[in-house]
Each structure stands twice: as structure tokens, then as C-alpha cells.
């Protein structure tokens, strides 16, 4: 994509070289605008005539006095190629599609949130602005359609008038509403007054009155309300400000104006000076819209040319467009008034209507609803008032207009409003959509401001706290504090050796699956779709997985696996950093929706006694006496039939010094329906059949501390000689050491390796880790001890099997960047990778997605590209005479010479930056420094190769930025030399209404000619007497003065204040660029230069720059930066994505940077392990090729059947359907598959 974009720019450079040379000067190009349409038509006809060629040489640059006509303003002797301008517009639209890609393809992000973001709104505004002004500048020069200029004049005036009319109308409606409410309250007795105020505040969706029956029914409440309410302090309800939401009102005004202007441009006839509605030429749209307007047409003075069309009713007056506008404005204000008087503009309208609809829908009281929310743990799913939006910017037009109205058969007809019943009737025929999760989080966008905040956290953690503060040292006190003499096992050890599989609900017969089951997952807490899908599968009582096909049969098999008693989490619980918000919404929310916690669960609770047994709110038969003082909580844990979870922290959990982990993991009791009994970040689990699981906390220094070493060394002394050990840590150093060329680094896991070598001996059979977001399994190649075999025939001895399973929800990591054959430990044991998910082939294919998707998926990085690339070229603007320099270098317009000219000029500009650049030199060094720091040096054997590849990356950005500079500057001089923009005003006196540039002046003149009289006639009865009649009522005088004030305000805005003229001058961006470019080049090129030496273009004389006005420089840079950015930013993103893709596939580097950009939420995995009756460990690797992106509420979910008074409930882990959300559609691609299977014998 980057190559095609650059080729397109180069082709456009060659295309614009075919510019006309009609001998016109720049002064002659500016034409008086009172006959602009005639001049445009004559210019178009003149372009079609053959033009004589000339071989006159271009004179060198001279001062302005000696040579008024500048040589760089001359044009070529070639014919015009209109497709050049069309190609430019198509290229702009292409880049707009690239910018707007987040809206068209959200890639896991909520479409509404992306579309309503300030960033995208600014981008959309910028592209609409540039596309429209470019079209208005170029298109009239090559066509006779001048109506678009007139329609543009109508657009600006109509937008301003619409906003003013809507604001004024809303203000008047708000005043009338307050007067009406005050009159209603003041016309009753004191008791009725109190009742009506209460109804005005708390009654929404119906009449503001409270009937006598309601007042009698709620008499006691009304008395209490009257006694506790101070009417004189707050007599009126709190309403949303009348101008809110201003953005929606502004969009409505712009949309209305755009539609009417399109209609004006399509139907207006400059020959008739009216709208053509004749049967022959009018068209269906024009006749259908303007023929009814003839009934309301006021008498106008008809000229000779329009007399016949007015006589036979074939044309409509120009004021008809304002009748349509007035009808639309009145309709908008009428809808606003309806919403105002039914209470929809009250600040708490949404909250009241939501709670009322929930009560009507479920038929349960409020406390029952709260209990259900507490149990399900789905408080984040509630449609809370103003969730995700500013409370001051509530949309007045509520999407759900009284969906939960009274049923059709209800006898209570009071309080209904006719327009509400219409909405309810329409909704009867619409299908009610199932409930969907709200407030979900998308995959973390790493290429945004997060990359800076995370980098700062890592800098602080590694450079300040690492080695100076270790939270693990404080956890020893927790073990001593929780000491229990009645327990036989040491503190920190949890005994599950007597636990067996429980078949609580008898969902299926598991006689063949006896033994102990446990699950392993790591790297959760990213996007909701992937994280929740993994949590949902872990929560199911049984999991039906697809098994690989055998060699004899091509059909896939099925196997049902029960849920594990234990859930081991390998770290990195939430991304991107450990904050309360990320823990709650990215980690806890997914598990709570998958399997709800008990009703007694509170998020604010801080646990001081672990484990929290017995469970309050659940009826559980543990077979023990909970009140027995000798029966402590740890003994109850061995008899607890529900699932438990243990979690080790990862590197992301350590960014805040383990503070959030301590609060939310070590001080909480529940992760959804899983019990969390641990009090330290490391733990030991005694499993059946002589198996042990040891969870280590490696922190940020990649090793266990001395306290952990002592704890596990003492534990190893109590183990039996034939016991088998599973080690769980977060980082798989056996893979990363080979990748990072740290195989001989003794600092990595030195304490852990010493513990395994001296205390655990040969007991370690399996090592589990996460951190890498994929699945791999490595087995030893040679062994000296006894031999056992896996399913694929690989031999396993006293060295452990190494498994990485980090697919719990985070973005996917590649597998092809890591070697198949690795050496582990100081002894350099040989290991071979026998399984990888996804496969290396799929991983390489996914890497190439960065070529065209990096720009779309990481659009938040645009601000960095814009700042760096424009800063790189800021010292080079303007390139005076660059267009003529190209014509001299490539007179035949050969593609080869074009590429040669671009290469030479880019090289010359780069040398100029290094020699005389100021800001450009600074940004060049910044780009080089960022490129060097960003480049991963892991797979580079020599330092020179690392530096060279990073400089290639930096030079690619610098070159493309300079190419965009050449292209933009060539286009500026092309449009100036073509006369497409007027660079100075000719034939105008000082009193003329001029905006300074051609397009802006043309628009303002058309506004003066066609539409200014509409505001001038905006007077009371077209005449106002200086003295009022003596019998005029005071109210009439007030109305007349108010009307005159509004009229004077409009006249002042359009005549006295330069509001419209200033807006048009800013809108005419090409005119501003052209005029300032000419002004700056007249100064920079003064004195002349030899024709063969382009000193004026590339000299960058600092002394001449000092002669320029600072305001002129800033105005030119601000204007040209908008056009430069729309070309440079997509190219920069594409160059970066191309570099990433090449590095991933050919150098096998940048695995983290290359795939975090893709934010791939598919290809997830976790482990389900089984200890059978023989003591062997079976490992089932479960993979998900695809993850659902759309969810709906499960109709069979048992969380909705809780009654208000039922405290003793069935535990959620005994439910048949514990998960709240299920995929919107059941697809085979969403089913779990067994991607790998292995079996490890305890006694080998």
C-alpha cells in the first residue's frame, strides 16, 4: 500500500506538469466577482481552443520592480489534462477512507463510541472541509455548473441562521414551560401545590398533573414529602440546559442546510432566476418539492425573462427554499416542545424511566432487583443513567420512547399523551432485541497514549523500585499472622489431596472421568469478547470439545471434559496497567458474568479471614460442622465442593508495586463463582495421588526472593520421594532466553533453578507459564533417567515438560519468531517444540496483515505521525519554484526522469536539513532516535546490523515525508500558475466587500446578490414607526421591542461584524495558501539567481526568512499543514506497518510490537488437566480458532429466577447454565477444539 501510494503521488507529479500556458499573468487571473459565472464559462470554453506553443526561455529570478511577472508563475505550453484534478480528488477520498476506517470497521471497538469520539469528529470535519473547498476550487474551472458556488453561499448563511433560530426557539420554549409550570402551581391551593410540584419533579412520560385518586392513594407519602421539601428553595425541577446537546443541534443544522443546498443546486436556473419546475426540464424532485410552494409564493417583481414561466407556473420563487427551511425549523422546535412538556428534559428522566420499565418488566420490587444484581455480579451491565456520557450532554431525543408503556388492555388512560401512544404503537410491530452486555471493553489499543504511560510505569518500576522495594517481603508477616496450630500442613499450603470430582447436578455420567481435574489459564483481562469467552468455557459444568481426527478416520471426534476443581491463573490479570478500573471491567467482570458470586458478595468488602467459609447466601453441604472451633477455615476448604482459584502475579500486575493485586486478589474472597483462599502472591497446593502444584512470584527481577526460597525449601523437605511437582510461573524464560540471546545469563531464575536442583530434585515433571499469548509445548530430546512417552512418541525422563499457555484473552503472539530447537538451563539440555498454536504457517500469514491493517487498527497514532512528519518538513516551507524546477529537469515527462528527479531532490532536501535545518533537524534526530529504540535487537548477531536496520526504518519515514512535501508544494504552484486560485484582488476599491481571496469573494458576492435581502427584510411589518401610538398596549410594545432586538442582532452579525466574511476567508483554504505562498516567495526570491542553480528553491536562506512577517509564516504553515497531514499521515502509518511486516517475516523480530498492533482476539487457548486413578497427569490443550463478537442474554440463565426473600440459594457452580451471555449465533467456528494432548506419568 505504501508503494502504491508513493507511485500515485509520483504519477500526479507527472500529470500536473501538463499545465496550460495561455500567457495570463497572476493579476489577470483574478476577475471581478460580480460576473464570476460568465467568466468561468468563458474560461472553460477558452481552455478547449488550441493554443500556440512557444519556446521562449524562462528568465531568471529578479526583483519585483524589475520583473513584475515572476518566472515561476509562468505556465507550460502543454494542454490541460482534467484527469489530474480528478485524480487528486480521488486520492483525497482514498485517504479519507483510510482515516475513516475505524468508523467503517471498528475492529472490536463499539461503533457508537468510535463515531462519537472527538478525534473522529475532528477528522471527519477536516476531510469534509478539505474535500468541499477543493471541489469548489477545481470543479468550476472545468465545468459550467456554477450553482455549487451559489449553493455554498446559501449553506453558510443557512447554517448560521439555523443555529440562531434553534437556540432562540429553544430558549423561548423553555421560558414558556417555566411560565406554564409556575401558573399551574400558583392556580391551586397549598396542598395541591405541593402535590403538583412533586408530580412535576418525579412524573416522567405522562401528564405533569397528579389525579385525585393518586393523591388519595399516596396521601401519606405526599404529606411526608411536603414536610421535608422546601418549596421556596427549589420550586422548579432541574432541567437539562436548553442548548444541550449542542453537538446534535449543530449536526441537525448542518444536515438541514446541506440537504436544502443540494436541492437548490439541482433545481436553480440562472437563466430564469428561479427554480425550474417545468414538466420538460424540472425533474421529479424539483416538481415534487417546489410545486406546492407556488401556493405560498408572495408576489414578486417579474422580469421579462421570467414573465412567461411565472404565468404558466413553471418556476418557483427563490424564497421558496426559505419556506422549506422554516417548515423544518418549526418541526424541530415542535418536537422539542413536546419533549419539554412531557418531562423528557429532566436530568434524571433516563434513570426514572429505566427503573420504572424494569419494575414493569420483571414485576419485582426494587430491593429484589438489587439483590439479583449483587448476586450476578453484573452491576456493570446495568443501563445506568448517563453511563459513558456526560450528564450535561444528555440527548433530548431518547432512543427508547416509552417502550414500557401501559399494556394495551390497561384501564388507566389518564396521564397518556397522544404522541406517546403513536410511538408505542409503532414499537408493537418491531421485534424486541435480546438484552446485550453494556459497558464492555475493546482490545487494548497499545499504539496510543497507552504506550507512553506504560513505558513510564516500566521506567519507574525498573529504575526506582526494582531491588529497593519488594512487596513479597511483607507477605511473610501474613503467613505468621494467620498461623493455625490445629492444621498439620504449614502455612501457605492448601491441601486438596482428598478432593475428588463432584457431579453436583448429574448433568452427565462421569464414571469414566474419575480423578481430579484442574484448569490453567493466563494473560486474561483484555477485550471483553476474548476474555469472556474463555471465562465462559471455564465456568461450564462440562465442556464438549472437538478432538483431532485419527489416521484411520478423517472425521473429528468429541469428548466431554468436566470443569476443574481448581483454576490456576498464570498472571497478567488485566491490561494495560493494574488499575482498579482495568481489574474490575477487564478481569472481574468477565468471570462474574461467566459464573456469578454469592449474594453476600460486595465489591467494597476487604477480607480479613480467608477462606471465607461457610458461604453466606449459598446452601452447601460440606459434611462438617461449621460451628466446631476445631474445624478451622482451612479444614473446611478441603471439604468445600465448589471451585477455587489461585493466581500468581505477572509483570503487568507489578507495575504499581503489587498494590492493586493486593487489594483485589489477596483481600477479596471471590472471583465470580470461584473462591479465592490465598493470602500471598505465591502458594503451594497439595493434589491427589502425590502431585504438588507450586505457584511462584518472579516479580520484575525474573526470580524468586529469599523468603520464597525458604518457604518452598522447607515444603520440599516434607514431600515424599516419589511425589511429582508442577511449577507455575509467569514468564517462560526457557523460550525468551533463546530469543533474546540470554542463554548464558545466570541472573534469570537463578534462585528458582537452585531450588529445583537442590531441594526438589527430579520431582519437577511439568512447568507452566504464560506471558506469551499462544500455546507451545517443548519436550526434552535426550534423557539419562527412566523413560516415559507422550502420545506422539517423544521420550520424557527426569527433565520436565515445558508448556506455554498464555491465550486467556490478550492479543495473539506469533509462534514463528521462536525456535523449534532450544537449549535450557546451565546444562544446555536440548528441547524440541512438538506443538504450536497457531501454527507457524498461520502465524506468518497473520504477520502480513500489518501491511494494510496497521494504519486502520492503530488510528490513534495519527497524532504522532502528524507532529513528527510535519515538524520534519516545517523548516523547508515554502519551496518556491519547485514546479518550474521539475519542468526544467524533466521536459519530456518521462517516468524514469521523474523518479530520478524525486530521488535527487529528496537527497538534496535531506542534506539541507542536516546543514541548515532548525526544527527539521530536531525532528529528524527524534525520528532516528525513536526508530533505534523501537527496533528489537534480539535476533541481530551484530550491533551494526541493529543500527543499520533501524536507520533504514528512519530513512523510510524521512523520504516519504519529503516526497509528500514535494508533491504538496508542486500542487500549490500548479494551482497558482493555472489561475485556479486568485492570489490578489484586482479592480476593487477599498470600500468593496472583499474577503481577500477568489473563492471566498465569489461566495460572499453570491450571498449578497441572492440571500442578503432575506435578512434585510427581517423587520416588523417591513416598517417601524419612530413613535408608538398612545393606545398601544405595554405587552405589544414589549413584543415589538423584542422583535426589533432580534432583527438588529441578525443585521449586526451579517453587516457590522465580519462574521460571515471571516468564516469564508478561513474556509477558502486554497486561496489562503496560494496568496501567502506568492507573498512569501516574492521576498525569498528577491535578488534573482542563476537559472541553472535552484538557489531560491533549495537555498533556505535564513536572512531572507527573517524579512518575512511572522503572522504570514504562521498562517501559511497552519493552512498548508492540513493538506500535508492528509497525505503524510496515511503514508507514514503504511510505512511503519510495512516495516513491521518485513521484520516479522524475514528477521523474526518484533513479536510483541508486531502483533500488539493487530490486537488479534482469536486463537485463544487454556489447559484442562486430569489426575487419573493411576496418578498420571493428562493435559488437554483447548483452543478457540474464533471468538464471538456479539452476545445476547441466555434465556436459560438461572440468575433471573431469584425471588426477593429467598436468601438460601443454590450455588452458581451448580447451575446448568451459569453464564449470563451466550453468542448471538451458534457457529461451529466458535466451538472449543483439542489442539494438543499429552500424558505425564508420576512414577517415571
Please, could you describe this protein's structure?
The protein has 1244 residues and is an alpha+beta fold. Helix content is 45%, strand content 9%. It contains 43 helices and 26 strands. The strands form seven sheets. Strands 4-12-13-14-15-19-16-21-20 form a nine-stranded mixed sheet, sandwiched between helices. Strand 12 (683-686) and strand 13 form a beta hairpin. The longest helix has 40 residues, at 147-186. It starts with a helix and ends with a strand.
Provide key terms for this protein.
43 helices; 1244 residues; 6-stranded mixed β-sheet; globular; 45% helix; alpha+beta; single chain
Give the overall average pLDDT. 74
The class by helix and strand makeup works out as alpha+beta
Distance between the termini: 56 Å
Computed CA radius of gyration, to the nearest angstrom: 38 Å
State the helical fraction: 40-55%
The number of distinct helices, counting runs of at least 4 residues, comes to 43
Describe the biggest sheet?
Answer: 9 strands, mixed
* Beta-strand content: 5-15%
- Runs in which pLDDT lies below 50 for 5 or more consecutive residues are 1-35, 47-83, 103-108, 196-235, 354-430, 503-512, 784-797, 985-996, 1018-1030, 1089-1093, 1203-1207
Silhouette:
globular
Major sheet strand order: 4-12-13-14-15-19-16-21-20
How many strands appear in the DSSP assignment? 26
How is this fold's topology laid out?
Layout: H1 2-15, H2 26-29, H3 36-47, H4 83-99, H5 101-104, H6 111-115, H7 118-138, H8 147-186, H9 190-202, H10 212-217, H11 219-228, H12 246-267, E1 268-269, E2 274-276, H13 284-290, H14 304-311, E3 315-316, H15 320-341, H16 349-362, H17 366-376, H18 418-428, H19 450-465, H20 475-481, E4 493-495, E5 516-521, H21 528-539, E6 542-547, E7 557-562, E8 566-569, H22 580-594, H23 633-639, E9 644-647, H24 659-664, E10 670-671, E11 674-675, E12 683-686, E13 691-695, H25 706-717, E14 724-728, H26 733-739, H27 750-760, E15 764-769, E16 775-780, E17 788-789, E18 795-796, E19 801-805, E20 821-824, E21 829-837, H28 840-847, H29 850-857, H30 862-873, H31 882-889, H32 895-916, H33 919-934, H34 943-978, H35 998-1010, H36 1012-1016, H37 1034-1056, H38 1059-1067, H39 1069-1084, H40 1095-1098, H41 1102-1105, H42 1110-1147, H43 1151-1156, E22 1164-1171, E23 1177-1184, E24 1191-1193, E25 1221-1223, E26 1233-1240
Parallel strand pairs: 4-12, 5-8, 8-9, 13-14, 14-15, 15-19
Antiparallel strand pairs: 1-2, 2-3, 5-22, 6-7, 10-11, 12-13, 16-19, 16-21, 17-18, 20-21, 22-23, 23-26, 24-25
Helix pairs in contact: 1-32, 1-34, 4-7, 8-9, 8-12, 8-15, 8-35, 12-15, 21-22, 25-27, 29-42, 30-33, 30-34, 30-42, 32-34, 33-34, 34-39, 34-42, 35-38, 39-42
Amino acid at each position: 500500500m505504501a508503494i502504491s501510494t508513493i507511485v500515485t503521488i509520483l504519477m500526479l507529479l507527472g500529470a500536473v506538469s501538463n499545465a496550460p500556458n495561455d500567457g495570463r499573468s497572476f493579476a489577470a487571473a483574478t476577475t471581478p466577482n460580480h460576473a464570476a459565472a460568465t467568466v468561468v464559462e468563458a474560461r472553460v470554453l477558452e481552455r478547449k481552443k488550441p493554443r500556440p506553443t512557444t519556446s521562449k526561455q524562462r528568465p531568471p529570478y529578479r526583483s519585483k520592480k524589475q520583473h513584475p511577472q515572476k518566472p515561476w508563475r509562468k505556465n507550460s505550453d502543454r494542454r490541460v489534462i482534467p484527469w489530474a484534478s480528478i485524480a487528486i480528488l480521488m486520492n483525497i477520498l482514498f485517504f479519507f477512507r483510510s482515516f475513516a476506517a475505524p468508523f467503517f470497521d471498528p475492529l472490536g471497538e463499539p461503533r457508537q463510541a468510535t463515531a462519537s469520539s472527538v478525534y473522529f469528529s475532528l477528522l471527519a470535519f477536516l476531510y469534509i472541509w478539505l474535500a468541499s473547498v477543493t471541489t469548489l476550487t477545481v470543479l468550476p474551472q472545468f465545468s459550467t455548473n456554477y450553482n455549487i458556488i451559489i449553493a455554498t453561499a446559501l449553506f453558510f448563511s443557512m447554517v448560521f441562521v439555523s443555529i440562531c433560530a434553534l437556540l432562540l426557539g429553544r430558549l423561548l420554549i423553555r421560558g414558556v414551560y417555566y411560565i406554564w409550570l409556575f401558573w399551574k402551581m400558583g392556580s391551586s391551593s397549598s396542598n395541591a401545590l405541593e402535590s403538583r410540584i412533586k408530580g412535576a419533579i418525579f412524573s416522567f412520560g405522562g401528564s405533569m398533573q397528579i389525579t385525585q385518586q393518586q393523591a388519595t392513594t399516596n396521601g401519606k407519602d405526599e404529606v411526608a414529602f411536603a414536610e421535608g421539601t422546601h418549596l421556596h428553595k427549589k420550586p422548579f425541577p432541574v432541567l437539562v440546559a436548553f442548548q444541550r446537546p449542542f453537538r446534535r443541534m449543530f449536526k441537525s443544522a448542518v444536515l438541514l442546510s446541506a440537504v436544502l443546498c443540494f436541492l437548490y443546486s439541482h433545481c436553480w436556473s440562472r437563466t430564469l432566476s428561479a427554480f425550474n419546475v417545468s414538466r420538460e426540464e424540472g425533474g421529479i424532485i424539483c416538481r415534487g418539492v417546489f410545486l406546492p410552494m407556488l401556493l405560498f409564493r408572495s408576489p414578486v417583481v417579474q422580469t421579462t425573462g421570467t414573465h412567461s414561466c411565472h404565468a404558466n407556473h413553471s418556476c418557483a420563487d427563490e424564497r421558496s427554499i426559505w419556506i422549506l427551511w422554516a417548515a423544518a425549523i418549526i418541526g424541530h422546535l415542535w418536537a422539542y416542545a413536546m419533549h419539554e412538556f412531557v418531562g423528557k428534559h429532566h436530568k434524571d428522566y433516563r434513570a426514572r424511566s429505566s427503573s420504572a420499565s424494569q419494575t414493569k418488566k420483571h414485576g419485582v420490587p426494587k430491593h429484589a432487583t438489587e439483590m439479583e444484581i449483587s448476586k450476578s455480579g453484573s452491576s456493570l451491565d446495568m443501563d445506568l443513567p448517563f453511563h459513558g456520557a456526560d450528564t450535561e450532554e444528555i440527548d433530548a431525543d431518547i432512543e427508547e420512547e416509552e417502550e414500557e408503556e401501559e399494556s394495551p388492555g390497561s384501564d388507566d388512560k389518564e396521564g397518556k399523551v397522544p404522541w406517546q401512544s403513536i410511538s408505542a404503537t409503532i414499537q408493537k410491530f418491531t421485534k424486541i432485541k435480546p438484552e446485550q452486555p453494556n459497558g464492555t471493553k475493546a482490545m487494548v489499543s497499545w499504539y496510543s497514549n497507552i504506550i507512553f504511560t506504560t513505558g513510564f510505569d516500566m521506567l519507574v518500576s525498573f529504575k526506582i523500585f526494582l531491588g529497593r522495594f519488594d512487596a513479597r517481603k511483607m507477605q511473610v508477616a501474613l503467613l505468621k499472622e494467620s498461623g493455625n496450630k490445629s492444621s498439620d500442613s504449614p502455612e501457605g499450603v492448601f491441601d486438596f489431596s482428598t478432593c475428588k470430582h463432584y457431579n453436583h447436578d448429574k448433568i452427565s455420567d462421569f464414571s469414566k472421568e474419575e480423578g481430579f481435574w484442574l484448569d490453567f489459564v493466563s494473560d486474561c483481562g483484555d477485550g471483553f469478547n476474548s476474555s469472556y469467552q474463555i471465562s465462559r468455557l471455564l465456568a461450564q459444568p462440562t465442556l464438549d470439545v472437538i478432538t483431532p481426527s485419527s489416521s484411520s478416520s478423517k472425521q473429528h471426534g468429541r469428548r466431554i471434559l468436566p470443569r476443574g476443581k481448581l483454576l490456576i491463573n498464570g498472571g497478567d490479570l488485566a491490561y494495560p496497567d493494574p488499575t482498579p478500573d482495568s481489574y474490575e471491567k477487564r478481569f472481574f467482570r468477565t468471570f462474574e458474568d461467566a459464573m456469578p458470586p454469592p449474594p453476600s458478595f460486595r465489591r467494597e468488602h476487604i477480607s480479613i479471614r480467608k477462606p471465607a467459609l461457610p458461604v453466606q447466601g449459598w446452601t452447601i453441604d460440606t459434611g462438617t460442622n461449621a460451628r466446631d472451633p476445631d474445624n478451622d477455615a482451612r479444614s473446611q476448604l478441603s471439604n468445600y465442593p465448589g471451585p477455587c482459584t489461585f493466581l500468581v502475579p505477572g509483570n503487568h500486575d507489578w507495575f504499581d508495586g503489587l498494590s492493586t493485586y493486593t487489594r483485589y486478589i489477596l483481600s477479596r474472597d471471590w472471583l465470580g463463582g470461584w473462591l479465592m483462599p490465598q493470602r500471598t502472591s505465591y502458594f503451594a497446593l497439595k493434589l491427589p495421588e502425590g502431585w504438588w502444584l507450586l505457584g511462584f512470584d518472579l516479580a520484575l527481577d525474573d526470580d524468586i526472593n529469599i523468603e520464597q526460597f525458604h518457604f518452598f525449601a522447607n515444603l520440599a523437605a516434607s514431600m515424599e520421594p516419589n511425589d511429582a511437582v508442577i511449577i507455575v510461573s509467569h514468564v517462560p524464560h526457557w523460550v525468551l532466553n533463546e530469543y533474546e540471546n540470554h542463554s548464558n545469563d545466570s541472573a534469570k531464575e537463578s534462585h528458582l533453578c537452585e531450588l529445583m536442583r537442590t531441594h526438589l530434585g527430579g520431582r519437577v515433571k511439568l512447568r507452566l507459564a504464560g506471558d506469551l499469548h499462544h500455546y507451545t509445548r517443548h519436550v526434552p530430546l535426550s534423557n539419562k533417567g527412566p523413560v516415559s512417552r507422550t502420545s506422539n512418541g517423544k521420550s520424557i525422563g527426569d527433565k520436565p515438560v515445558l508448556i506455554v499457555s498464555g491465550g486467556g484473552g490478550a492479543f495473539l503472539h506469533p509462534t514463528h519468531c521462536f525456535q523449534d530447537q532450544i537449549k535450557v538451563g546451565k546444562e544446555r539440555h536440548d528441547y524440541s517444540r512438538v506443538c504450536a498454536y497457531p501454527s507457524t504457517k498461520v502465524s506468518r500469514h497473520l504477520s502480513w496483515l500489518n501491511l494494510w491493517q496497521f494504519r486502520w487498527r492503530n488510528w490513534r497514532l495519527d497524532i504522532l505521525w502528524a507532529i513528527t512528519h510535519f515538524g520534519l518538513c516545517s523548516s523547508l516551507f515554502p519551496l518556491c519554484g519547485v514546479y518550474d524546477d521539475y519542468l526544467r529537469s524533466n521536459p519530456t515527462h518521462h517516468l524514469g526522469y521523474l523518479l530520478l528527479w524525486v530521488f535527487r531532490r529528496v537527497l538534496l532536501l535531506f542534506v539541507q536539513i542536516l546543514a541548515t535545518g532548525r526544527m527539521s533537524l530536531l525532528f529528524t534526530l527524534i525520528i532516528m532516535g525513536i526508530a533505534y529504540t523501537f527496533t528489537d535487537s534480539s535476533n541481530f548477531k551484530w550491533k551494526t546490523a541493529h543500527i543499520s536496520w533501524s536507520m533504514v526504518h528512519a530513512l523510510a519515514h524521512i523520504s516519504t515525508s519529503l516526497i509528500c512535501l514535494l508533491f504538496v508544494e508542486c500542487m500549490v504552484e500548479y494551482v497558482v500558475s493555472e489561475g485556479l486560485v486568485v492570489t490578489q484582488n484586482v479592480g476593487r476599491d477599498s470600500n468593496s466587500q472583499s474577503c481577500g481571496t477568489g473563492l471566498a469573494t465569489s461566495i460572499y458576492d453570491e450571498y449578497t446578490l441572492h440571500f442578503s435581502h432575506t435578512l434585510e427584510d427581517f423587520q416588523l411589518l417591513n416598517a417601524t414607526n419612530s413613535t408608538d401610538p398612545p393606545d398601544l398596549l405595554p405587552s405589544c410594545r414589549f413584543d415589538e421591542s423584542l422583535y426589533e432586538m432580534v432583527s438588529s442582532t441578525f443585521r449586526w452579525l451579517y453587516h457590522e461584524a465580519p462574521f460571515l466574511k471571516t468564516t469564508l476567508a478561513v474556509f477558502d483554504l486554497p486561496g489562503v495558501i496560494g496568496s501567502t505562498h506568492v507573498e512569501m516567495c516574492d521576498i525569498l526570491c528577491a535578488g534573482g539567481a542563476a537559472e541553472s542553480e535552484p538557489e531560491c528553491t533549495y537555498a533556505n536562506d535564513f536572512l531572507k526568512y527573517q524579512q518575512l512577517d511572522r503572522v504570514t509564516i504562521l498562517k501559511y504553515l497552519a493552512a498548508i499543514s492540513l493538506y500535508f497531514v492528509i497525505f503524510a499521515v496515511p503514508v507514514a502509518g503504511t510505512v511503519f506497518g510495512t516495516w513491521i511486516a518485513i521484520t516479522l517475516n524475514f528477521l523474526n523480530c518484533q513479536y510483541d510490537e508486531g502483533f500488539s498492533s493487530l490486537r488479534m482476539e482469536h486463537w485463544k487457548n487454556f489447559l484442562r488437566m486430569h489426575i487419573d486413578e493411576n496418578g498420571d497427569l493428562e493435559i488437554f490443550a483447548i483452543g478457540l480458532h474464533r471468538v464471538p463478537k456479539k452476545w445476547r442474554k441466555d434465556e436459560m440463565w438461572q440468575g433471573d429466577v431469584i425471588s426477593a426473600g429467598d436468601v438460601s440459594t443454590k450455588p452458581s457452580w451448580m447451575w446448568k447454565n451459569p453464564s449470563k451471555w451466550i453468542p448471538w449465533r451458534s457457529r461451529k467456528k466458535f466451538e472449543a477444539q483439542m489442539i494438543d494432548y499429552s500424558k505425564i506419568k508420576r512414577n517415571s
